[in-house]
Amino acid sequence: MLDKWTNAWVAPVLARCATGLGRRGVTPTQLTVGGFAIGMLALPLLAYQAYGLALMAIVLNRVCDGLDGALARHLQCQSDAGGFLDIVLDFVFYAAVVLGFALADPVQNALPAAFLLFAFMGTGASFLAFAIAATRHGLERPHFEHKAFYYLDGLTEGTETIIAFVVFCLWPVYFPWWAVFFALACLITTAMRIAGGYRALAHAEEAPRERFENGADA
């Protein structure tokens, strides 16, 4: 929901940083894998309730996640392989953070963490399933008039997830409440993506059929 605004002011900063990294020979894959390794440190840090250090690992992971794409665009080396690696490692990282909170206090946090992971499955599945089908139909955000999707819009996108993780770390005692609240928002996002994605793909499938029928009538 907030990505369209945050990207507008973050993108120029990332582009400038990417230019400097490119001069130093850093590659997008190095940033992706390095950022993932840093982010995974949050799991044991959270388990040992070192919330400040875990927050630093989370923030650094998200910075690297933004920089790898910016660097790929700067070097003009964007690829499906790089995109695949980035997305998969992102989802593993998200799950690791939630697991870290469950390990920090299993009695209080385990059930809310499980509920949040359940909700993450919905947002992740709807994101990836639509992306696969949209590619087959050539649907791209700039050219799709019915819904302005890159991934399907919803209440919880990248910006909201970062904010949630920061809140979890700053006020860990309230994790059960924040986790349930964010999980409900994720479930609403999943419902929106299912409905919007179905309509988008149904329209894409009907368009060629309509053109064929109109051509046959002519």
Automatic annotation (TrEMBL):
Gene3D superfamilies according to UniProt: 1.20.120.1760
One annotated GO molecular function: phosphotransferase activity, for other substituted phosphate groups
InterPro entries from the UniProt entry: CDP-OH_P_trans (IPR000462), CDP-OH_PTrfase_TM_dom (IPR043130), CDP_ALCOHOL_P_TRANSF_CS (IPR048254)
Membrane-spanning ranges: 36-60, 81-104, 110-134, 155-174, 180-201
Keyword annotations of the record: Membrane, Transferase, Transmembrane, Transmembrane helix
Entry-linked Pfam families: CDP-OH_P_transf (PF01066)
KW Lyase (keyword) present: no
Gene Ontology CC terms: membrane
BP GO terms, sorted: phospholipid biosynthetic process
UniProt keyword Calcium, yes or no: no
Family: Belongs to the CDP-alcohol phosphatidyltransferase class-I family.
Name of the protein in its database record: Phosphatidylglycerophosphate synthase
Organism per entry: Chromohalobacter canadensis
